[in-house]
Amino acid sequence: MSERYLDVNRHQISKGILSGLCVRCLAQARIKLQAWILPCDEALHSVAMEPEGEFVSVLFRPVISSLADPNGHSAWPGGENILAIISILFIVLSTIALSLNTLPELQDTDEFGHASDNPQLAHVEAVCIAWFTMEYLLRFLSSPSKWKFFKGPLNIIDLLAILPYYVTIFLTESNKSVLQFQNVRRVVQIFRIMRILRILKLARHSTGLQSLGFTLRRSYNELGLLILFLAMGIMIFSSLVFFAEKDEEDTKFKSIPASFWWATITMTTVGYGDIYPKTLLGKIVGGLCCIAGVLVIALPIPIIVNNFSEFYKEQKRQEKAIKRREALERAKRNGSIVSMNQKDVFGRSMELMDVMVENIDGKKEKVHDNHVSPCPSKGIPKLKSQMSSSSPTKTLEPSYQEHAMPSSSPQHLSAQKLEEMYNKMAKTQSQPDLNSKEKGPLSKAVKAEFEMESIPTKAIPSTAEAITDMRSMSSIDSFISCATDFPESSRFSQSPISSIPGRVSTNPSLEPTLENEHEGSQGTTTPLIGESTKHGPYSGSPKSVHFKNPLKCSLKVSFRGGEDSGTGVLSDSSSVQSPEVSVYTTASSRTPTKSPENLPPSIFTFHDSSINKFIDADTDEEEHLHDGSGTKPTQRLLEKANHTEDAQRRRGNSTLPLDGQENHVAQEVQPLQGEQSHSNA
Amino acid sequence: MWTIPKPRYRTDLCAEGQIAVNIGGVRVMLFGDVLNRYPESRLAELLNCSTQNSEVISSLCDDFDPSRKEFYFDRDPDAFKCIIDVYYFDEIHIKRGICPICFIKEMEFWKIDQSVLDECCKGYLSEKEEELKEIAKKVKIIQEDLEVDRCITRTQRCQRFMWKLMEKPGSSLLARIIAIASFLSVLVSAVVMCVGTIPELQVTDAEGKLVEHPILEAIETACMSWFTAEYLLRLASSPNKLHFALSFMNVIDFMAIIPFYVVLSLTYLGTTSMMELANVQQAVQALRIMRIARIFKLARHSSGLQTLTHALKRSLKELGLLLMYMGVGIFVFSALAYTMEQSHPETLFRSIPQSFWWAIITMTTVGYGDIYPKTTLGKCNAAVSFLCGVIAIALPIHPIINNFVVFYNKQKELETAAKHEVELMELKSGREARRKSRT
User: Fold this and answer.
1) Do B416 and A562 touch (CB under 8 A)?
2) What confidence category does residue B14 fall into, taking pLDDT thresholds of 50, 70 and 90?
3) N or C: which end of chain A has fewer CB atoms below 10 A?
């Protein structure tokens, strides 16, 4: 639904087609998008924006990068976790010291007879503050944008946690001899209270706390409502009880403001019992006050809770995606796939794909190197430069940014091609394995792949199917996270591609896996075609058809091609293709897209946990594809303008002969595979 | 019913008494006798006139292939699959995912009466229709705001201007300022009302009685005159006076204003010794409670409060349930507590009505501690009573909360939808204007 909304945004004209009812669904999606998904994105991006300063010496870099983002992103494997734990320990320690300091038994008395800090605890405090200061300074130095860093809410908290200490020291040192010591003491006391803020530093290490803060910020409307309800209730009941109890002898309800306290304590059902009504009328008012209080407090809270859970879900999802990417990058930085963690079999196979993509990318970059602009270097420069060309995220990133600009159609396609390549790799990778089993001479990489293959009992083609299909899982994920209660009909989930005659007329006797193969092989051909006809139209790729289809297309499907969803193979093909669409649309819009609901069950009936895991892994990979695209969501929304022409042009080309390419492709695949194994060996 | 042959999805030519229809690419063979169960429907008409001239046929369907005897319709096949059910089962269920409004249009096209729609789907439809109506209402309001007033007479224009100024805070800067001022005056008057009761801030009058501070009284008077002016202006500018006077918000406004004037007139009567002074003072005291009504004036400025009143209105039944549960609980537990505490010599429970208070305070988990059980049995009873109280409150409160949440979210969604709709209309009008300029 929200994808539709974005489509509508893209093609303003198509808006007229939607009836008022659908408009409401769009409104739901719009609210969700604006309230949760985009902000969550932004919040995460601001957190995950790892600071990499050019001028900080290389020596500090590992420390800095691990300090900068405890969620990962460091040159030290595991180092970031240690640092995060140390940091948490310091926070807890300093808070405990702070509270112990107020125990009268532990306090010292200074020369004026005032209670002062215990010297041991003061040492603890100094050590903690030193750590916090170091942390803050390193972070500050290593941040790419100082002002942005300064403004970040978490960093403001850090600063507020440190500053009171220094201000206190400054004040006491500078005023030691001055007579107005009393005033200084009072100020110092206030600053001591501010030390409590350091407990908020824990927010950096806890997703839950961040979500809480974010939720409170987002739902200030509901919080305001809660306070308003309470304030009104307090005012009404306190004045009522005041008038009821006024004439009682030595009553405690002396005025309306005095009975505010009673009303608050009663409405929140705390009930200290220091003030309570004594007359009958007062007791009736009190009883009503209790019940009204329970009601009034309970009303707005579910909305806030709902907001919280919504945001928390989204954040968890995206964080997971980021983590996957971290693992991937770390493995790549380590240079070899072989040395990878044994536990991470499925992650490994993913990387294999990536490495293969890398190879092809390397080739391709010779052709399109102006399209794939190099990523800003980070971490260890040498490895990074490799990475920027290798990982699809990195290569996709610049091209997405270029999307925002007009007249960038070739760039579109290069991004797509990467994706196709990725698909093809997923496909071809599993295919040669069958052969290699018999052949014997294997690269280690392929062996690793073997491990993965041997676990599932299913046939390998089905794995391949899973690989290509798992993109739909990402859409499931986002679909769940943003489920509109309005069920998606088959027409919504229809892949627009099926409206194109060439596609729909696919032979129904084809196995789904064959269909996949078809897909993958087409993917292979495209770069080759691109290579041969350097400046030729890239729209020869059939996949480009379903890259950001215009709404027009999908609408057409909904009316003409509706039957397709029921018949197995065709809808299978659409399900294979629709993920592509969904990937791109999510990348561009950060919203859930096609409903996977009525994909045929065959796709979701993998019994092997391994495959499921595999799917999961790749899903996240997909997600981080769009996480990685650093363009702002708004920018992404803006890109809608120039799609209509592109898509139309592509549709015009979409009827290219497809079937003849298969053999040719198979030939192409083998050398590539061989090359791959050579390079790994 | 199952003996009736199913439609055949085959491509062979149809035999006598059958027709083949092709709806949006889906070919269906239908039997004439089945179709004739609803003779007024489009398909039955098609069947009955299939031998006649082509003009009638082309008026009934989009296209006709005489060689294959196939009728083409450019309609939604999904909806048709549901609609065809009527011939077999005499009822229609809307498939999940089809927009019910759309579906009704399809049904109209196939000339099938809406009454065959099954109850379960009717509820769905009516719900959606209600939503649409609400959206339309909101759109109308927005459009009215945007509309340039083209009233004929000057007084009407003046009235319209005043109405917008007072009722639509978003319409202009001045209107917004007025709204903020009225909000602030509500707050100030509420604060003044509370502060006025603090003994330290009161002054003694000639008879040695505590009365409100003159400054506070002056503020009170100013606020009251503002409220009065506001109310009168609203009343004067409203297009429909009776409707205005009876609407909920304005009744509250009226209630907030009237005590002040009643008190004024009563004191006037008292000073002119037309009434006894003591009586007047009692009446004035009683009327002071009425001042609380002004707090409700805040509801005009908060959509959340309006939602609350809506939700409470809608869940009156649950509120009754809550009160009933509480009432039963109070009776049972106060009686139990009273009997159990009788054994204790210094019991705080002197009578059952007195222990009502204890029961309420315990069941709502407030627990002041002014009355508490002292015997063991009484303590056990207290524990049970507070557990029961939690449950008795939690159970009926859930539907109330649910009502509130649903209402709140829906309000937000419908508002967004209405905005969307307005955007859409602007878009349409813009497109039309462009088309006109082109031609």
Assistant:
1) no
2) low
3) C
Q: What is the mean pLDDT of chain A?
A: 58
Would you state the structure tokens that stand for residue B409, as one six-digit string? 């979210």
> CATH 1.10.287.70 region(s) of chain B?
307-419
| Segment 550-569 of chain A within 8 Å of chain B by CB | 558-563
The interface pTM score, or ipTM, of the predicted complex is 0.75
Residues of B in contact with A6 (CB under 8 A): none
List Cβ neighbours of A429 (8 Å cut-off, separation of 6 or more).
A349, A352, A353, A356, A449, A673
Fold of the CATH domain B18-117: Potassium Channel Kv1.1; Chain A (3.30.710)
The most confident of A114-123, A334-343, B56-65, B407-416, by mean pLDDT: B407-416
* CATH fold label, B159-301: Four Helix Bundle (Hemerythrin (Met), subunit A) (1.20.120)
Domain spans in chain A, listed from the N-terminal domain onward: 52-66+79-205, 215-334
CB nearest A19 (choices: B102, B357, B397)? B102
CA distance B155 to chain A (A): 37
- Give the CA count within 13 Å in the CB-facing half-sphere of A539: 16
Q: Measured between alpha carbons, how far is A119 from A124 in angstroms, rounded to an integer?
A: 9
Tokens representing B113 are 């009466």
Assign a CATH topology to domain B307-419.
Helix Hairpins (1.10.287)
Q: Where does CATH 1.20.120 sit in chain B?
A: 159-301
CATH no., domain A215-334: 1.10.287.70
**DSSP β-bridge partners for residue B204:** B210
Q: Which of A286, A294, A558 sits opposite B393 (nearest CB)?
A: A294
Min Cα separation B418/chain A (Å):
8
Architecture of the domain whose range is A52-66+79-205: Up-down Bundle (1.20)
Place of tokens 């676990």: A455
